[in-house]
Amino acid sequence: MPLRKVLCHAEVNSAMFQVFAATPERMGPDEIGNYAARAESMGFDGLQVPDAIHDGLLLSAMALAATRELIVGTGVLVAFPRSPMTVAVASWDLQRMSGGRFELGVGTQIRQNIEDRYSARWGSPVPQLREYIQSLQAIFHSFQTGDKLNFTGEHYRFTRLQPFFNPGPIDHPNIPILAGAIGPAMTRMVGRVADGMITHPTNSPPRYIREICLPRVRAGLESAGREGKDFRLIVGPLTATGRDEQSVMQEWERMRSLLAFLYSTPAYWPSLELFGWKDKGRELQEMARAGHWDKMTAILNDSMLEQFVPRGTYDEIDTVYRDRYGELSARITFPMPADPVNDDYAAEAVARLKS
Questions:
Q1: What pLDDT, on the 0 to 100 scale, is given for residue 15?
Q2: What is the per-residue pLDDT for 1?
Q3: What pLDDT is stored for residue 108 in this prediction?
Q4: pTM to 2 decimals?
Q5: Cα(301)–Cα(311) distance, rounded to whole angstroms?
């Protein structure tokens, strides 16, 4: 059976996508409401909200308040600096206020950021994130049913929830919990306990998803006795698109610069290893350490970029997406135009991806 049919709702031969808009990481609370409403008017099914420069839960609240049907998900919320209880309370409120349109995406970030930027504890990231997700599920269950909260693990313990602090049942209590994952153990764990997975731009090449990612997810599903038919896989590639070839080339070069920055971090090298390019990661790491940021793009040639970045004008990009991801996932992210003057062209591409 094709992998897409195992993990997704849609049939392979129809190649119909749920299309999520990607949000620029620098976009703040003063802009996100209008941005979300714009995405909804263009026909996007959902919006992925970052948690990097601004708070992902605050951005989600403002995006949900500005829309009526748009699914809004964090992609991904940095988990370890936040207690699962505080995240559960916020998620419950977002689900209540939106009538069931919120999805919680969580991830680990990297050790240096957790310890030195957030001053939080970095333990064993795979079991820690597993317990994080399981404790969220336990808390949601107690919120909805009033049953005693009793989750005890190695990293988290939740055994006290007085009725006064329980927000009580809501109409849509099944908040999807998705997770970002790159390494083998993390990816299998996501298959075991989460409702879905959000790919990182560095692990979004079709070959990597087909040969590495999905087999690991399937192994996790099978180990937990799960069928996986409701598992959500959101593929989030860096995409070069625009009205004309000149616009596409500008985005192509911008994606080259972003990937060069990302691949200076060893945690993102597994996909480079698959293609035999791990030495390129080491070169980028050395350049970053030396502060040679302006020279890093030369390391990523066009042949490498083609594996990671779908490319085409708005008239072409739906075909490119189907060729790359049609057998792999029913959910993809697609970039909103930087200039709203191009919204109609992008909206037509979104409509073709959905049809």
A1: 73
A2: 36
A3: 95
A4: 0.93
A5: 15
Q: Which helix (H) or strand (E) holds 48?
A: strand 46-49
pLDDT beneath 50: ranges in the chain: 1-3, 6, 8-13
Structure tokens at 318: 């739906």
Question: 113 to each of 80, 261, 334, how far by Cα in Å?
Answer: 11, 16, 27
DSSP secondary-structure letter at 210?
I
How far, in Å, CA of 313 to CA of 41, rounded?
21
Q: Where are the beta strands (DSSP E) in 208-354?
A: 232-235, 331-335
Residues linked to residue 65 through DSSP beta bridges, in sequence order: none
d(CA 229, CA 217) in angstroms, rounded, equals: 12
Structural contact between residues 48 and 80, judged by C-beta atoms closer than 8 angstroms: no
Q: Are strands 18-22 and 331-335 parallel, antiparallel or unpaired?
A: parallel
Q: How many CA atoms lie within 13 A of 269 on its CB side?
A: 15
Phi, psi values for residue 241, rounded to 5°: -145, 165
Whole-Å CA distances, 168 to 90, 136, 142, 172, 331: 13, 15, 8, 12, 32
What b/e readout covers 238-275, taking b as 16+ CB neighbours within 10 angstroms? bbbbbbeeebbeebbeebbeebbebbbeeebbbbbebe
CB 252 within 8 A of CB 335: no
Tokens representing 327?
């057998």
The backbone region for 228, taken as left when phi is positive above 0, alpha when psi lies in -120 to 50, beta otherwise, is left
Pairing status of strand 77-78 against strand 102-107: parallel
- Which domains, ranges and CATH numbers included, belong to the chain? 3-239+310-354 (3.20.20.30), 245-308 (no CATH)
